[in-house]
Structures are given as C-alpha cells and as structure tokens.
Amino acid sequence: MTTSKRVQDRCKMKRIHDLEIATEKWKIVSKVLFLMEILKEEPEQVISIRSLNQYRKQINLPKPQKISDFIKKSPKLFELYKDHKGVLWCGMTKDAKELIQEEERITEEYSEKAAEHVARCLMKSVAKCLPFDKIAHFRRDFGLPLDFRKDWVYSYPEHFRVVKNEDEGGTGPEFLELVSWKPSCSIIELEKKVIGVSEDHQPGVLSLAFPLKFPSNCNKMYRYGGKINHFQKQSYLSPYADAHGLTAGSLEFDKRAVAVMHELLSFTIEKRLVTNHLTHFRREFVMPQKLMRLLLKHFGIFYVSERGKRFSVFLNEAYEGSELIEKCPLVL
User: Fold this and answer.
1) Please, which domain of life does this record's source organism belong to (predicted)?
2) CA within 20 to 30 Å of 177's CA: 67, 78, 150, 204, which one?
3) Which of 294, 187, 199, 198 is nearest to 241 (CA)?
C-alpha cells in the first residue's frame, strides 16, 4: 500500500471538501452503529462501561478519551446509569430500540438485492468463492444482517452455499461458493444503463467510458487531459470475464482493475469503502499490488480521503456535494 505521507501529499491538491465532510459524518455514525450492535447482542441490551473498554480499537476511541463522554454526545440513543454498587452501565433509549427495529425491517427488505451483490462478487472472483472472514469486512457496506453467517447465507441456495476447506479435512475456514452462473448478473452497472438486462449475456471486452467528476480546484485539461482521454478510449475486459491472460502493470490490466473497483463500490450502500478492505481482495479479484496508487491516479472516478487511521475511497459520480444522489434506505 502507498504510505500515509504519500497519500496525503498526492491528495492535497485534489481534495474534495464535501466528501471530507461525508467522511467525518461516516466516522461518527460508524462508531454509534458499532456501539448499538454491541448492545443489541447483550442479553439485556446493557453493558458496563468497563466492559466497553475492550472495544476501544473497534470504536476508534483512543485514550485518554472517555467512552462515557462519547456516549453522552448521543443522549437520544444511549443512556447511562449507575447500579447500587456504583458501576456505570450503558443502555439504549426507546428511540434507539425503535431505530434498530426499523433497520432490521429495511435490512430484510433489502436482503434480496444484497444476496445478488454477494453472488456477483463471487462471480468476479477467480475461484468463484470467497472466505467468510473477508466477506465479513463488507457486511455493513453491503447491507447484510449482523448475524449473516448464522441464517442469512442459507436463505439463498440458488445463489451460493457454505463450504469448508477440503485441504484441512473440512475443519478449516468456511467459504461462500457460487452455486450457478447467471448471465444477467454478469452485466456491469455501467453497461446496464446502456443495454439493460440480458438473460443470455456473455461478459467480454467493453468500451464504456467511466463517468468523471473532478475536484473544483483541479485544472485537469492542461495537466491530465490527454492521459485521461486516452484512458477513457481504451477498451477493457469485463470484471466478470476471465482475466488470466492479462499482464500485471499493463494498461489493459489496470483499466480492468478500475472497472472491478467501480463495480464493487456500486454494490455498497454508501458507494464508499475502507481501502484496507479492498486490498484483502487483490488476489481473488485480480487487482494490482499497488492498489492505492491506482485509486489516486484516477481521481476523476474515485476520491480517496486520508482522514483518520483508515483511508476511505468514494465513487465520485454517486455524490452531489456531501450527499448521495440515490440514497439507500439503510443509509442514515
């Protein structure tokens, strides 16, 4: 991966203020949602502040910040109280519980679409299967339920099935494996806007240009115009086609990788992902080792925010200012 300093240096003149605002909003919302998920899993939906300390890293709340101070910032969702021994506990308000019920209802309604997106990820992968642990990275981004490993994965046998690593006697890590190839699901999102859905589609070479949206302070025409136009005119292999014949580092290889990332971001409910999560799939999706460099290079298609310890990548075309143009019901 590109180092933090290099990312900051290369992003400095290409910063999009509105998407930095969206990043800050996401950082706060993700902490709140994580805390709600912890409480949801507790038998009585309450937990002591002392027990919450073990989740500091996941909440991204470094010392000396107090967890109780963070909780106090959301009085409509969380409440604090002390028991007779003086132990401080955290619970959810009535509004928070109603919000969780609403989220569960919407997640169930969105479930079919989420299953399709997971199946299409399997279709893009080299072996047509992905480890559960890696899919878990995308759980919230894809709108999957919290306990998706328990019941959800068995609800769509027409799409995928759970298998174990046979090399380890069936006791190794679990994988999700594609059950059947559906031609209509091998049409990339950009292509759908042109040809619609076809039941006998065969993925191959594409010539569709990617939508571009540049930072207002970036004078693209003088410094980058020629290279961008050349890249946009270059044909590329569909993310769903066999990529074994491509040479790593070639323009064809890189443009296909851009198409893979564009398609993957299109599947997410916020059209945004943590870049570390993307790197976990380099081998499965046949993407370059220096993935961050490719994201930064194509700043008209993607935007990389370096705020915080983890970088985020946005799909530029999906945003107007700091807001999603088409908002999934699961997005707060």
Assistant:
1) Eukaryota
2) 204
3) 187
Instruction: For residue range 231-270, list pLDDT tens digits in order.
Output: 899 999 999 999 888 888 898 999 999 999 999 999 999 9
Q: Cα 306 from chain centroid?
A: 16
Beta carbons of 284 and 323 less than 8 angstroms apart? no
Which of 326, 327, 328, 325 is CA-nearest to residue 18? 325
pLDDT category of residue 1 using cuts at 50, 70 and 90:
very low
Where helices occur in the chain by DSSP H, the ranges are 4-11, 17-41, 49-52, 56-59, 67-72, 94-124, 132-137, 189-195, 220-223, 225-233, 251-267, 275-279, 282-285, 291-297
pLDDT band, residue 195 (cuts 50/70/90): confident
